[in-house]
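User: Batch of two.

Assistant: Item 1 of 2:
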Amino acid sequence: MTGVGVASPPARAAATTIARNFTSLMLGRFGSQALSFVANAYLARRIAPAGFGAIGLAQSVLGYLGLFSDSGLSIIAVREGAQHPSQIRQLIGSITGLRLLLTCALVPIGLLGAGFLPFSESSRAVLRVFALSLPFQALAVDWVFRALQRMHYAAITQVATAALTLVLTVAFVRNPDHLLRVPWIGLVTGACALVLSLHLLTKAGQRLTLTFHLRDSLHYLAQSLPLCAANFAVTLYMQANYLIVGKVRGDAEVGLYASAAKVAGVFFTVTWLYYAALAPALMEVYARCQRSAAAMLGESVRLTAAAGCGLAAVGAVASGLVMDRVFGPAFSPAKSALEVMLLSGAVVAVTHNWAQLAVAARRERLILVATALGGVANLVVCGMLVGRIGGFGAAIGTLVAEVVVGAVLILAWPPEFGLRALRPAAMPTAIAVVSWVLGMQFAARGRLAASCATAVLYGAGLVLTGTVGFRDWERVRTALRKQTRFTDERCELE
């Protein structure tokens, strides 16, 4: 086999493209999140906790409807568009037509099913209006921007939508009696976001079409449904943890567990943005050159391990400080659960590379099998530990599940795509452990000092060992200066 340690031209070009994509997505996500935070803070003060809770319940149900209306098709569409850009117009029509057909079946379910849910009448009314927004989601073309690697168009749509939502919320929601205006605002902003994205789609040289061919639809669904089932399984076993903790230990323990989960989610936002940037580039390179894909996978493992292990080490040291400052001293007992969740986040930050590889290689069923085994492991561990140690035990269950999922995904590949590609994660892991141990020596001076010391030690360790170097910063600079396209190169793993 040819060596995979040196990145070939397609892999080097892809690395620059990923840096550009990541920058666009980061700006879009943080900009939209900042605007959404202001909108939610204003909304919570105007409609009171009961109204805010009604919206939250309706949005949780809408999340399931959105999951099934997409059914994993957007991921398959990104892969097909990235690997076969000449077929993007046909793909837009087929995927959009199929998503719209699925949505037309789900809208009546949302409208009629709302009356049977054990929620308040306010939540049901909000859900009925939210259900009307599903067709806008089906017609959304953000996946096209990802497939074409025009992430800045997706970022523009995100920020503009969040800004319009904030303006309309401030203008039209003044008191709890205006609760039902909130989903209608969501409907309006969804329509405006669609119009803007279609305009940007024309600037990308494409246009929205709707077609439906039974054979194509069955072909795409056969590939996307395992992904949909895997996402549904993850959602179920994550929510099962809340149910188990609540049943065994009560609402207070659920509150502690939920607070830790929210903080851990914020910590690892950056890694999910990275994967959104990575996916289309990896899919395109895999279709062109498997040797380059193997080299690119190793580089991605190095970068995600450097980010994930660092976040876990610094976060673990600062966990008590974060819980106290964000939620208050009453939430300090959640520190242990947060530390385990951060470790789980580091595992996912590395192993999700192989989930992306599975999609690129059309092995979606591998993701479903890995997720199912992880879900079983999670439930077994939770059943054994939650009764004794509460949310901490549920967090350990999630960690075990992520390790199982990662092991199944990695071991299913030949060495050049499996264990050999995992080697670059060893050095960041070792540096993180050493930094955590040394950083904790500063705990007597306060958690802030200890976390800062851990961060400095970890960063220095990455630079001194060459794990992260000048070439990484140069890629980012190059990505910001120009568009990089991949060169054709006929090559296979030998």
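Item 2 of 2:
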Amino acid sequence: MHCCDKINISRGQIIATFENQKFDVVIDFCSSCGSKKATSHIKEHKMKVNEFLGERAGSQLRAELYSDSSGYNIKYFINNVHQTTESFAGKSIHYVEDAAHNWISGIKVLNG
């Protein structure tokens, strides 16, 4: 069954921010009648919170901190190559920042 006599599928996409959370919102709809289609979706958008830079043994180190509804994550990079991502559900931003600092300074070792 069609939504109208002349189906014309269009797509709208925005990033919506509520409090400190961002969401990618994609809405597929018929521009003739406005009916929403099943391919529409909302995806959580991770927000970059902070970034820490350092150098050790001739390598450039970067730790990027992200926030989403499940907590914080750190993406670790050596010479701009992603090494691993670590999740910190239920931890404070201070705890996560300490983990990033500890990795940059060589105290924390990555497993993976």
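The helical segments are 93-105.
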